[in-house]
Specification:
This protein is an all-alpha fold. The chain contains eleven helices and no strands. It has a single domain, classed as Orthogonal Bundle (Ribonucleotide Reductase, subunit A), CATH 1.10.620. The structure holds fe (ii) ion (FE2) (2 copies).
């Protein structure tokens, strides 16, 4: 075996799948007769998830770019492989959310305003120094990992969601947990600055949440629900009420701002194992749509 072949096989061995971050090729099927409102038979809450789905493709590309520009600095073979896995997983998430968004658009639920508003917010973030952009990405990855953990443990949430669309969110959530440390490890490599992590909160919230609320309101109005106070009150309570889905994630947010924070301090390995088996084990729920299964 010559040196090039040896190197090639080593690179392959260390690709994402060998370090627990496999980019799974999934082709979700969206049923034409699935309910219009995927969550709790409620327009307001369902449209919030549509906004998130609109946010993901541009958002995940921002995450990938903020890491990719430091790829050349990574000497550690394991971290290199983890970055490959991370980029692969996020690229497939974006693709499947784009397919979901196209499916929603066909039924008149247009996520384009959400996509445009997140692009505007990300453009503002892209004016920042590269290291601050990566700090913002680590904060957003902490948020998505927290969202993922909540989604996979919250029976109440899963009981209200349409099972078919829920499967897409569960797959995405599992992979968010699998790669939750990658951007942070790259950020550590370039010099983790505490003040940049503190700044990430106002920068991300300030640039992305106005667009989130504007596009959410726009979509609720377009759905003819702008004055359906019952639907709005119920939807907002389901997400942002005292026991709301988003509210329950908030206690996990402050961890990020500890000086010695690392995503692995929160051990989610048992939860990941449970869901890997449930979705991709021998009789896993998504076995039939997983195209590159080992
Ligand atoms: Fe993702
Ligand atoms: Fe992610």
């Amino acid at each position: 075996m010559n040196a090039v072949t040896r190197l090639g096989s080593k690179v392959r061995r260390l690709a994402g799948a060998t370090v627990g971050i496999p980019p799974r090729q999934i082709n979700f099927r969206f049923r034409a007769d699935s309910p219009r409102y995927m969550y709790g038979d409620n327009a307001t809450a369902s449209l919030h998830f549509a906004v998130l789905s609109g946010f993901f493709p541009p958002g995940e590309m921002f995450f990938v770019e903020s890491v990719r520009r430091y790829r050349g600095r990574i000497a550690d073979q394991r971290l290199k492989a983890e970055v490959s896995g991370f980029i692969g997983q996020e690229a497939i998430h974006s693709r499947e959310h784009e397919r979901l968004n196209a499916f929603l658009k066909e039924r008149g639920i247009d996520t384009r305003v959400a996509e445009q508003s997140v692009k505007a917010g990300l453009w503002l973030l892209s004016r920042l120094p590269a290291s601050q952009q990566l700090a913002c990405t680590t904060f957003m990855e902490h948020f998505t990992a927290s969202l993922a953990e909540q989604l996979l443990t919250d029976e109440d949430f899963r009981g209200r969601a349409d099972p078919e669309l829920l499967a897409l969110w569960e797959w995405h959530a599992l992979e968010e947990l699998e790669h939750k440390s990658v951007t942070y490890d790259v950020y550590n490599l370039i010099g983790n600055r505490w003040y940049q992590r503190l700044l990430a909160l106002p920068l991300v919230v300030g640039s992305l949440t106005p667009g989130l609320f504007i596009s959410w309101s726009w979509m609720v109005a377009r759905e003819g629900k702008a004055t359906d106070w019952k639907d709005i009150a119920e939807g907002v309570t389901l997400l942002l009420g005292r026991k709301g889905f988003i509210t329950k994630i908030m206690p996990l947010m402050p961890e990020f701002f500890a000086r010695d924070f690392h995503p692995d301090q929160r051990d989610t390995s048992a939860l990941e194992n449970e869901w890997r088996e449930k979705l991709f084990g021998e009789n896993g729920e998504l076995r039939d749509v997983w195209r590159n299964a080992g």
